[in-house]
Amino acid sequence: MVRLPTYAGCSLTLTIAVIYHAFSSRKQFYPAMVYLSTSKISLVLLLNMGLVVMCVLWQMIKRLFLGTLREAEVERLNEQSRREIMEILFAITIFRQDFSVSFLAMVTTLLLIKALHWLAQKRVEYIETTPTVPMLSHVRIVSFMGFLLLLDSLFLYSSVKFLIQTRQASVSLFFSFEYMILATTTVSIFVKYIFYVSDMLMEGQWERKAVYTFYLELIRDLLHLSMYLCFFLVIFMNYGVPLHLIRELYETFRNFRIRVADYVRYRKITSNMNDRFPDATPEELNASDSTCIICREEMTTAKKLICGHLFHVHCLRSWLERQHTCPTCRALVVPPEGGASTAGGQHGPRPDAHQSGNQSQYYMSSDPI
After folding, report:
1. CA distances from 253 to 3, 214, 367 (A)
2. Same domain, yes or no: 30 and 51
């Protein structure tokens, strides 16, 4: 497989050659520029060089803010890229009357910026689950998120400004919507990172972190769902059915519905925790492991689930924000009506014994951008 430096060197050589040929054969600036903009071979080579420049800039930004990518980040990048390319191809069919060289350049730029957002989200998730993070990593990720928010804001402003000036539907609708989604996602990632830093400064004792994280994700999904619906209606009224939005609209609605169901279930379970979950007796604490598997701290008082496992009351409350199964055996905390407790999986990993006491690591969101 050809590496980027080799490909960039070959592309640069061919670009210099075609420019030299244009100026040597036409002798003057204007005829040379006309030749470069009308010759198909020259235009392809120049467009290829523009793509190489964007890829080189993308690699420089990635290396500056993130350094070497981890295997999970590369995997996320490959999976999201394949899916996003298909959606962009669908979008091009809708805006085919606006297809041009500038449109192609803007679509490529959007795809590269989206890739940076995927990496930022994955890196924040990694930082949240790492016991010790160097100060340089914190500086780089904060700078990276600030840089991404600046990019989102600039491109959003440019797209909205063009829409206001033209006062008619155009491909700028597509870019305005995309950068609005990216901007809100960047803010969500940054606020989630602030929650992590605050919990770290409190030495993992911020009990309300899981609650605020849950509400943050709920608000983010509500905003995205509202924007998807508005954009779907606008595109439908002006261009027809936006096929590339159907899957995103469905996934956003599904995620929002799951979060609302989680919240309703949480309120129902925790409304009478004292009656639903009895206090563990001293004999039960002595007979079992007195370490709370959620926070990894010793328990002097605990709540007992119907499966018999014991946990701190505040740890259990935080756990129930996102799960309704036992952290140890995965049995349902509240069995279904007319049935016994059954083991069941729910979105979210099972805590392992080697993990640190930061319970926020169990609430990582894996929603695609």
Report:
1. 41, 16, 12
2. yes
Note whether 209 and 110 are same-domain residues: yes
Buried b (16+ CB within 10 A) or exposed e, 231-246: bbeebeeebeebebbe
* H helical segments located in 27-100: 29-38, 40-65, 71-94
Q: What is residue 301's DSSP assignment?
A: S
Sign of the CA dihedral running 49, 55, 56, 57: positive
**Distance (Å, rounded) from C-alpha 292 to C-alpha 206?**
16
Identify whether 197 is part of a domain.
Answer: yes
In a domain? residue 317: yes
If asked whether residues 105 and 116 sit together in one domain, one would say yes
* Torsion of Cα atoms, 143 then 160 then 221 then 92, to 10°: -100
Q: What is the pTM of this model?
A: 0.72
pLDDT tens, N- to C-terminus, the chain (369 residues)? 458 788 888 988 999 998 988 888 888 888 888 888 888 888 888 888 888 999 899 999 999 999 888 888 888 888 888 888 887 777 777 777 777 778 888 888 999 999 999 999 999 988 887 778 889 999 999 999 999 999 999 999 999 998 888 887 778 888 898 999 999 999 999 999 999 888 888 876 676 777 788 788 888 888 988 888 888 888 888 777 776 677 777 888 888 888 777 777 777 777 777 777 888 878 777 777 777 877 777 778 888 888 888 888 777 777 776 677 788 887 877 766 544 433 333 333 333 333 334 433 333 344 445
Q: Both 98 and 139 in a single domain?
A: yes
